[in-house]
User: Which sequence fits this backbone?
């Protein structure tokens, strides 16, 4: 089958199309799908650069998120049959290919009436955004939330959910993406390249700061988020480091930023707190049923253009969810 193989840890430029990859076979508890659409995620960049803890070693078939019809089921799988369209995540890769193996337990049916590409994000971006906002971030109506990378796949989901639950959204994005973020309902949109984001957020919140900060950028932006959060009760949920590592010391938390810092990794949340994950997915399906979350509109690329899609994501030029069509 055709597949995109990552051949080094030098990033997406060493992601190569191969045509002789073996079709994988589902083991116990697994299903095989024909990948109709694969989701592109920032994690693909982290894995391609070797910054993803415990990530796959090259050569590996890239891509973690796939949607399409089931073509075979492994031993012990119940409730899922060939022909059913599902979306799921395989964190060890394999999605950027014509066929992919997924753990059956985490595969969910594509919502009725949706095409496979429209379901991308339902098992990565939306649960991550909801986890950051509600169970971990404790967001309630009327509170102010700062959302970085708000035009991105996860950021757009976060803006939509935060507005649905009645929060005031202060978003950041590169200048060319501001209209998209405003159209999602964000109350204020700041330039993510602005050197003094914290001062802007304090100004917009009457001097007190944001009740919640969704931090996915790292580098100097982590410091800005800590400074932008409300003292004592403000929460900073850290779930990404697109812009690099950053350090917070005990001195910082005692003398400079008296805020609550929370780490989020959706894979760990699924493993270590399945009940919370179940509640998140239940809430998301309620939002789908109510029409609050509608079918996605990913930007589609041919499989062969996967390296280009990843390079654009890394260069910060993309908006929203990206899909590869094998
Ligand atoms: N912890 C978890 O479980 C989990 C799960 C899903 C996603 N995430 C994280 O959530 C973040 C968003 O992921 P996504 O897949 O939805 O990607 P995305 O938001 O669609 O794309 C990344 C965006 O981050 C912003 N950014 C800021 N500094 C950047 C830098 N130095 N390099 C690249 N991008 C930079 C850019 O937006 P602007 O140019 O508009 O500022 C860029 O468009 C990532 O950090 C990802 O690792 C974490």
Assistant:
């Amino acid at each position: 089958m055709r597949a995109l193989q990552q051949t080094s840890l030098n990033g997406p430029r060493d992601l190569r199309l191969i045509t002789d990859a073996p079709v994988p076979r589902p083991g116990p508890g697994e299903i095989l799908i024909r990948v109709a659409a694969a989701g592109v995620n920032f994690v693909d960049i982290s894995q391609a650069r070797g910054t993803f803890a415990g990530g796959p070693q090259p050569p590996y078939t890239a891509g973690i998120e796939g949607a399409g019809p089931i073509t075979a089921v492994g031993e012990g799988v119940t409730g899922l049959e060939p022909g059913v369209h599902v979306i799921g995540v395989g964190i060890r890769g394999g999605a950027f290919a014509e066929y992919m193996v997924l753990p059956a337990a985490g595969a969910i049916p594509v919502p009725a009436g949706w095409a496979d590409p429209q379901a991308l994000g339902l098992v990565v971006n939306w649960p991550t955004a909801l986890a950051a906002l509600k169970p971990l971030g404790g967001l309630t109506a009327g509170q102010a939330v700062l959302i970085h990378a708000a035009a991105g796949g996860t950021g757009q989901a976060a803006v939509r959910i935060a507005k649905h639950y009645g929060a005031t959204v202060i978003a950041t994005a590169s200048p060319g993406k501001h209209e998209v973020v405003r159209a999602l309902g964000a109350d204020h949109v700041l330039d993510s390249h602005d050197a003094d984001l914290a001062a802007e957020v304090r100004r917009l919140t009457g001097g007190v700061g944001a009740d919640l900060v969704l931090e996915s950028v790292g580098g100097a932006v982590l410091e800005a988020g800590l400074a932008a959060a409300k003292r004592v009760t403000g929460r900073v949920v850290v779930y990404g480091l697109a812009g690099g590592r950053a350090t917070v010391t005990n001195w910082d938390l005692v003398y400079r930023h008296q805020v609550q810092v929370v780490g989020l990794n959706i894979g760990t949340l699924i493993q270590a707190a399945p009940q919370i994950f179940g509640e998140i997915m239940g809430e998301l399906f309620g939002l789908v049923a109510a029409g609050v979350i509608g079918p996605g509109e990913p930007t589609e690329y041919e499989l062969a253009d996967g390296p280009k899609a990843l390079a654009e994501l890394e260069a910060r030029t993309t908006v929203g969810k990206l899909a590869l069509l094998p």
Notes: The mean pLDDT is 97.
